[in-house]
Every structure is written in structure tokens, then in C-alpha cells.
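Narrative of activities, Objective 1.

The group set out to show that a structural description can be obtained from nothing but a protein's sequence at a throughput compatible with the screening campaign. Below is one input-output pair from the validation batch, recorded exactly as produced.
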Amino acid sequence: MSVLDRLKAAGVTLPEPRSPVANYVPFVITGNLLFISGQVSAAPDGLIKGRLGEDMTLEQGQHAARICAINLIAQMKAALGDLERVKRVVKLGGFVNAAGGFTDIPKVVNGCSDLMVEAFGDKGRHARSAVACPVLPMGAAVEVDAVIEFA
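Output recorded for this entry:
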């Protein structure tokens, strides 16, 4: 089954990749690595904003992280043309807008990680960091960046 078929089975439709909101590019290719700039929790119906442990639940945070994964995959497709070129999701960096006492940061970022594995199978298993931030750009709930190896 292709990556696009697995995404379709998961109910995922890839959006048009988001344009940068500041002075950076959406991705950089060097050698056989694709570095994707942080993708925020921007869904087709708008930006998912909020702070985990304050005005968002864990489940809402996981959904926001899944939206980040969808946006990362859209950037992969824009950069590579064909998602079958992905050899490995090497690393994800997850940033969660969280209140001081909220400690389930890794569980939030699982919303992104789970979709990578669902879409790419074992090639979607990755190294990862997951950190809390007091605020993210535009008030986003979650932001995730990625390093991808491709053929």
C-alpha cells in the first residue's frame, strides 16, 4: 500500500503546503536529507491555538500535533514530489505551548509521531525531542519540525 493510500485510509487529505510567515524557507535539501521548518497546528478551518494544561486537554493537543504531521507530510510531498521517495523519518522536534505544571508533553507529540508511523510504517519510526514552550508563534498549540532521509 502506498503512503498516499495509507493516508487516505486514515482519513487524511493533504493540504497545500503553508508558506513561511517570516524570513525562512519551508524546507532545505542537502545531500539526501530534507530539513522541514516547523509546521504549526494550522488546520484547513484555522489555526489551533491554546495552552495545554490551561485551556486545552491532552486529546486536543494530540489532535493539534496530528495536524502538524499532516502539514509536515504536505511539505515532504512539495519537496520530493513523491512520498515513496521517503526512506526514513529521521527526527522530529516537537514544541508544545504548555502551562508550567503540564508534563504530558511527550504524549501530546505522539499525535504527530503516530501519524508518521501510520503513513510510513517502520520508515516512520524516528528519534524525537518534545519540549514545552510558554508561547508559540501566533499562539499555536503545537509546532513540529522534521529531518527526512530520501532516495
